[in-house]
Amino acid sequence: MLIIKKIPRLTYLLLLLVVFGFLAILYQSQIAKIQEKIHAIEKHQEHIDASLREKPLLKVEDLILIYNRVPKTGSTSFVGVAYDLCKKNKFHVLHVNISANSHTITLDNQLKFVQNVTNWNSMKPALYHGHFAFIDFSKFGAPKPLFINLIRRPLDRFISYYYFLRYGDNFRPYLVRKKHGNTMTFDECVMQQVPECDPNNMWLQIPFFCGHAANCRKPGNKWALNEAKKNLITNYFLVGVTEELEDFVQILEQSLPGIFEGATDHFRRSNKSHLRRTVQKDAPKNATLEKIRSSQVWQMENEFYEFALEQFHFVKKIFSKNKGQVVMYEKIRPKPA
Asked: Where are the transmembrane segments (predicted)?
């Protein structure tokens, strides 16, 4: 017969103390290991931060931004903010003026421009702006600058430019424009099939992003549209839309504070959004809109605009959802000395 002896109370308490003591030691040991890992991660992070500070890829003082601005997209308003802030934020703003208002640059001048932008150290950091098509710096063996841009709904931009040539804008109200005195409405121009209102003339935003290839200049060219989309995603730091200009300024300030610190507040306080508004614009009739929208060029330019808009909204969404986001590096092997 098995006889179970009752464990004395004192012995039982001693066993409990031993078990709890063992668990406490194990717990402390695990805490110590976790603290060691945290310390190691922090140390690695400090080492990486120090390495990046010693030899950063993109130093603020060497930053180059290129804004190949599309006409009648609100570019004057944005550039006005940059000119107002450049002295305070210690960067330079340079206007690239091309003779005969050409949007394409000869090959030799492209090379000179790339060389100047890359090597003109006394002008760094800098924002270059002008009405010219995208230039691939890597084609000339140079490091790529950060390209930025704004685009606008193609028909709105087309109509605005039409009336701008007749009535000017509030930026320089006394300057006589090319079509001054011509009071033909946009509706009349389209219905009478005046060459100025040919939908092919809307082929502008795609070429600006496509670049200097021959196909970029061909209205309705599918390759040009795809190339413009590819460049927007791979070669542009940020592309905003005229209709959401303040958001564009805000994201640039958050992303590049060394250049655009205070830009959002300045944009709001200084009413920069009201610069260069066309003095007179008549709303087009539905028949005119239908005629324009039936053209292949409008459809492709609008497809590009919608593509850019979707990408910009995606960037905005990431910013709004991830405020205060921190990126760290861990599990680095071999461990830094």
From this structure: 12-29
